[in-house]
Structures are given as C-alpha cells and as structure tokens.
Amino acid sequence: MKPTIFVDRAIPDAVMSYLREHCTVDAWTEEDTVPRGELHKRLAAAEGYLTSGRRIDDELLAAAPKLKVVSTISVGYNHFDIGAMKRHGVTGTHTPEVLDETVADLVFALMLGSARRVAELDRYVRDGLWKRGDGDNLFGIDVHSASLGIIGMGRIGEAVARRAALGFGMKVNYHNRSRKPEAEAKYGAAYMALDELLSASDYVVLLAPLTNETKGLIGKREFGLMKPSAIFINASRGATIDEEALIEALQKGTIRAAGLDVYQQEPLPAEHPLLALPNALLLPHIGSATTKTREDMAMLAARNLVAALQGEEPPHRVPEFKN
Ligand code: DGY
Question: Does pTM surpass 0.90?
C-alpha cells in the first residue's frame, strides 16, 4: 500500500505526478498558508510531510502520530526542532546543492544593487527627480577590486567567492568553522577570525546557517567593527543578526548600506523601521527563487521524501539525523 503524504503548498505538476506514482497525496491547494488547526487534522493520517519553512515542533508532531519523514523544500532547516523530531521518531530531509549558484547570483544582485543604489535610483527616475544638474548625488561605490568577507564558507559561500575572485577581481576573506584549503587555493581566499574579517572587508556577506551558535552572530559590536564604508549583506536567516543593531548602524552611518533577503519576521510587517531606510535594499526572501531552481528543489524534496518512506537512504537527510 502506498504511504499517505501531505503536501502543504503548490508544487510543479511533474513533481506532483512523481509523488502520486509513489504515494497517496493529500495536497493543500489554497493560496493562503494552511492554518495550524487544519494542518494538524491533515497530518493525522500522514506518514510523510512535504513543506517549506513550517515549524516542526512537539505540538505538530503530537498531532501526527504516523509521521516518519518531514521533507523541506529548502536548504535551511532551522524550522525543524531536531530534539522534538528525534523524540517522535521522525527524520528530516532538505535540499542543498541545487540552489547554490542561484543564491550566489542573488548575493551579487544585493551587493551590486546596494553599491550602485539600483532600487533607490530606480525610484528616483520614476518619481521624476532626475535632472540635468545631477552628479555626485547619484554616485555609488565599486564592487570590482574591493574586498569581500564571507561568513559561512559552505557551497554557496564558495560560489560567491568564485564570482568575486574570478569575475570581479575581488580580494576574498572568509570565516568558517573549518578552513577551506581548496577555496584558498582556487580563489586566493584568506581565512580570518571574525573580528578581523569584519574590519578588513568592504563587503560583508553573511551566509552561515541559523544554529544556536550563529543566532545573533552580528550585533552592535560587530557592526561597530565594520568600516563606515562597508556594505552588509544577509542571505542566511534574519535571526543570525541583531536587526535593531543593524537599523541603528544604518541610521547612524556606522556602515554605509545593507542588502537583505531575510528578516526576523517574514513577511516584513508594514511600518517596519527598515522600510524607511534608503540605504537598505530589501528583498522578500528570494535567494533560491528562480523557476528552474525552485522546480529542482521541489523535485529533490520529493525524491528525499519517497526514498525515506521506502526505507532507503534519501539523497539529502539533514546531518543531525544521520547515524
Ligand atoms: C533555503 O533554501 O533555505 C532558502 O533560504 C530558501 O528558503
């Protein structure tokens, strides 16, 4: 008998067909996110759950007594309460690798967009403010030949380093739990302690996954160590920084600008202080959001789910659940 799974979001037709070949699929088809009560009802019979970003905690797991696998369509899995999942005998999978180049592209979009004030000056043109006397009021700063500090030199970090060193002639610094000799050799990347990287880099890109160790990693002290001309990019998770400290740093000119794809609260609420800052470039968590990459991620998540339900080793089990 096919296992029953619950899919809580729209996924490409090809992915749904693949899932239907192997599973009995219950799918949420509304545009709005499935409400918690409804989710609990739908999970009562499910052995597998395909989601993205939904918090998996004791309360949810208590409502899902048959659940064996949660497969997230994301590389980040900070929404998994690993301890709770282990207690309930539920494993977790995620979707690394297929999104690396796409996220690295977006990091560059944030760097270039912040440095050359792309969104701000687009608004300037649309608002009819462009005039003959314009000059240095439109100036930005260079990305090419500048120094780049990457915090979190995983696969995405390396894809950013490659673009930076080989495409933009940048000097790459990095900070990571472990040294990356290959990246050092290929991109001339220099390993640095965090404080050293912060004070030495024109661009600081945060890519470290959200864990207990990285929560609030960049706060008032760290922004204070950056150059006043520095541009800070966050493409990891909102909680890896102290957002209030960032806002203060942007308001006071402690740093020049920030390019953000992630926030402590998503979607960003109306009236959020970041919205009033012209030196903040704000994107709605779209790091991996191209059609092809999102399709690849959904298919990988489906393969993870099916393999795990069939008792095979899934392509990408979350490391904490590996033996
Ligand atoms: C991820 O995959 O973790 C990206 O942040 C998109 O959610």
Answer: yes
